[in-house]
User: What shape does this take?
Amino acid sequence: MTIVDARGLEPPEPFERAMEALAELQSGQQFTLLLDRMPHPLLRMLDRDGYRNEVSIRDDGAVEILIGRP
Amino acid sequence: MSSANPGLAYEDTPPLSAPLRFFLTAPLFGICAGLVLLFGDGVLDSRWTPGALAAVHLLAAGFMLQVMIGALQQILPVVAGVRVPAVLGVAGSSHALLTFGATGLAGGLAFGLPDAIIGGAMLLLGGIGIFLIAALAGLIRSPSVKIASHAPRDLRLALIGLAVTAVLGLALAFAIGRGASLPIPLAQAVDLHAAWGWLGWGGILLAATSWVVVPMFQITPSYPARFTRWWAPVVLAGLVSWSLARSTAADGAGIVLGTALMLAFGAFTILTLRLQSRTRRSTPDAPFHAFRAAMLAMLAGIAALGANLVDDGGQWSVLAGVLILHGGFAGAISAMLYKIVPFLAWLNLTQAGIRAPNMKKLLPDIPVKQQLKLHLAVLAALVLGVFVAAAARIAGLLMLIEFGWLLLNMLRVVRNWQRARET
Assistant: This one.
């Protein structure tokens, strides 16, 4: 599965990386997004647009989001 | 028009005009503070001169408050998952009240007009009140979200600090303007107002914002969780205890608690400097250096406050005020504005489905670098002006240019944003 590691980047690069990955996502596919912090606007946008998303916080503090297109 | 994100758009962030009106008004108060220093007589002779009181409030209740309230409208939804309801109405009314309030208050203090002092303070309290009620309503209605940071809790603590500062300020306005009696001596009440404004509101807000913004924009490691878990609650509890000690003439306890609060704020600035020294940026930009300089100015300001505890000479408190207000807060806020405003313009374009230009095209580095260098020159002139009266006028002239330039740089972003929308 694809992992998009957007940690250590200055905004808005993490958002742009996430958008690029979403644009390429086909129905039934998923990818993991790694971020330094909780992206509230992105999460609400994913919910609104019907993308599946599971959020977990790793031991090192990184936010891991599994994003899938139904 | 090409779409950057087909089928996807943000709806969480408020319209650009909501925070932008605050960001574009704020520098005007800095320009006015420059005018006060340029044309006032002996403004920096003591913290009690009409000019010093006016300049402090132009910077704190004018420049700083405008930017902080504007930024909170943006930060609350993104960091804390809180949507401010009726955001344009709240922004419009609180902005008008804060603008007229700060103008009235500063004008009243500068020219000795009791009605303007009281009227200004009431308008300010009204503007703050509208924002606080809206923020509270947003907090109550917001769904619980997973939060990996203590920033949202500390933003709420800062809002408590703002409310206390504003109420103390209104009581002082009635004491000065109408001769209303206070339960404690006026000088002590002023100290409480200043301490709550500096630490309870500004300090905690700066820290809460830094927990997120410093690692995010300056690419540093995160603040240690055990530090962010305790820092703001401890500072707020310390501030309450210190206020009680000051109000009950428990001088010994007041000095101990006051020293502890200064050390706590010093610990935040030193930790921030240490994190910045571990940045993963290969070439730190001008706002990075400006934020670093602001932390050093804060440290120097704390040292001046410490000296004021030992030696009651009037110049220490003025020096501390100059270093903390202009060097620390105005410096850090300018550095943050240079990150926030281009980012908001970018976000707004993206929201509208427009392919946004690179952030550096929205605001090039060179004018930012030059303006921030001037900020340091103004600070140097202000420090000199504490000891040499003539230098205060030079500082005023330079400050006028500093904030005028800041405004021009903000307008540059707006112009580039408009151009991108039109193409």
Observations:
- The interface with chain B takes residues 8-12, 15, 19, 22-23, 36-38, 40-41, 43-45, 48-49, 55, 57, 61, 63 of chain A (CB under 8 Å).
- Residues 36 and 61 of chain A are 7 Å apart (CA to CA).
